[in-house]
Every structure is written in C-alpha cells, then in structure tokens.
Amino acid sequence: MRQLAVVTGGAGFIGSHLTDALVGRGWDVAIVDDLSTGSRKNVSPGATLHVVDIRKPAAAALIRKLKPHAVFHLGAQVSVTESLKRPATDAETNLLATTNLLEASADAKVKRFVFASSAAVFGTLDMPLPMDESAPIAPESPYGITKYAGERFGAFYRSSRKLPFVALRFANVYGPRQSRVGEAGVVATFAKRMLAKQPVRVNGDGTQTRDFVYVGDVVEAMLAALDRPKAVGPFHVGTGVETSIADLFRRIAKETGYRKRAQKGPKDTNAVIRSALDARKAAGELAWKPAVGLDEGLRETIAWFREHP
Ligand SMILES: NC(=O)c1ccc[n+]([C@@H]2O[C@H](COP(=O)([O-])OP(=O)(O)OC[C@H]3O[C@@H](n4cnc5c(N)ncnc54)[C@H](O)[C@@H]3O)[C@@H](O)[C@H]2O)c1
Hints:
This protein is an alpha/beta fold. The chain folds into two domains: 196 residues, 3-Layer(aba) Sandwich (Rossmann fold); 93 residues, UDP-galactose 4-epimerase, domain 1 (Alpha-Beta Complex), CATH 3.90.25.10. The chain contains ten helices and 13 strands. The strands form four sheets. The protein has a seven-stranded parallel sheet, with helices on both faces. A two-stranded parallel sheet has the order 7-10. A two-stranded parallel ribbon has the order 8-13. Bound molecules: nicotinamide-adenine-dinucleotide.
C-alpha cells in the first residue's frame, strides 16, 4: 500500500528535494505551502500541492482529513533578519502554526513527525566547536527562539500525546534550487553573482565560519529519521567542519573561474561568528553521516545555477 507524507514547505529549497526523494521511494506526497518564498517550479510532478498558509486552520484541517503516515514540517519564516524586525510574525509562523500542526498530527495519529530546527538555537558560545546536542541553548534571535520552542512543543506532544516527534537541527544547508533570499543563502548568492561576473561582497573580514551541509545529505537525514520512528533526538545535521566565508569565496571563485577580488561589506552584527555542529549522535542513532564533501557539493550546486541563471 502506498503511504502518504505531508511536507510543509515542500515548494521551498529543502522541502522540494525531500519531496523528490519521497516520490522516488514510492510515497504519495501532499505539499502544504503558501508559496511565500517557495515556487511552483520546485514542486515535483509526482506530488500534490495545496496552496495553504500553515497559520490558517485549513492547514491543520488538511492533516486531520488526510491522516498521513508522516509529517515533515519545513514550512517556516526562514530569515533571522526578518525575525528581528517582526518577532510576532515569526512567532505566528514558526511557533503558533507549528503547535497547531502538532495538535492536528496527534489527532490524526501520525506515525512520524519530523521538525526542521536550526543551529540558530545556539548563540555565540565561548566553547569548542563543533557543538554537540548537550551545548547550552542560547538563541539570539526570535527565529532561534521559536525554533527551540518548536522543539519543546514537539517534545511535549511526544510525551503527552505519544506523537513520534523528532527535531533535526540543520547547519547551513546549500545546494541546487536554493534561493538567494535570507542569510542562509550565501552559497547561492556567491555562485549566482560569480557566474554572472558581478561584484561579490564579503561581510566583515571573512573569517566568520559556517558548517555547510549539502541538501542531499539533509534529505538523507530526514529519511533516516523517518525509518527510525523511535529515535527521539534532537539530532544535529551538519558536517562538523568550519569553513570561513573567505575560504568559501575562494572555492566558488575557482569553480566558476571568477577573477575579481571580494568587495568588503559591513560586519553583520546579527550573525554568530563561528558555527559548526557535531553530528555523532545522528551517526550512532540514525546511522546518518554526511556523504558529500564541500567541493563536490559546490560543483553540483554551481552546475545547477549555470543551467538556471
Ligand atoms: N536553509 C538552511 O540553511 C536551513 C538551516 C536550518 C534550518 N532550516 C529550516 O529548514 C526549513 C526549510 O528551509 P529552506 O531553506 O528550504 O527555506 P525555503 O524558504 O526555501 O522554504 C520554506 C518554505 O516554507 C513556505 N512557507 C513559508 N511560510 C509559510 C506559511 N505561513 N504557510 C505555508 N508555507 C509557508 C515557503 O513558501 C517555502 O516554500 C525551514 O524550516 C528552515 O527554518 C533551513
């Protein structure tokens, strides 16, 4: 019998890759997306798109009606900067809507609920990197706060309603189809601008670091969580490797044949300085490890941007 998954945010970057993988595995997929940052172009022809805002009762009603086997909740307000400007809107989308979807999923007796959380639950900590799941939670933005609150609401539904909830904290995800909207899109921004031979700005001195994880690996982590419904989490989904923005600039410049120097932009005071996630817990309990190295992932990504200028 074919099984049904609901993917919120399935018209977005990560959600569309997940949808492709689920369709490839023979699943029926119902996407719930309001197309605010996502696009119809990303939607797999094998999936059904419901253009619904997850903040509206219609989204929870759909889950109660469809009774899917699994819910992957990726639909979100994804910008840290936007969350700092409009905290209440962030809370409506990332927290209240999440709570309503958890309630509906518990009612529908969903067998696996996978929540896209983020490294943003950590602030700038004076501790060695990469950080594992025992590092102190200290979000510095409404986005980080609501992602962590989503994790805790999920844990509440797991214990009170037996909903098999798991949170995966993604590092900086990159890959084909990433839009340049939002600060997570530095790879997309550099790749597009370098291919078009446009000036590229590096904020601050370029020594700030991020943990870049390929979208195909992130999809594999979500599928591993689907296959192990007893795994509780939260789980880090990253490579554990810190890459500086200056190093990223050099790698993408090499792959695209870009010869201009970086332009110096102002330091981003809202962003953490260094970040990397230790994913050994996911290796042990989900049998998941990242498989795509940075240069290989960048090659795939740049090839896609070449074909989709
Ligand atoms: N990209 C990253 O590096 C990264 C890192 C950590 C966590 N995440 C999380 O992963 C998830 C997917 O992110 P992404 O990078 O694919 O971003 P994205 O913007 O491409 O995808 C988000 C999707 O959610 C949809 N959406 C937004 N608000 C909605 C609403 N009110 N109702 C219905 N749909 C709505 C958008 O249209 C979009 O398709 C998000 O939850 C994000 O917070 C992403």
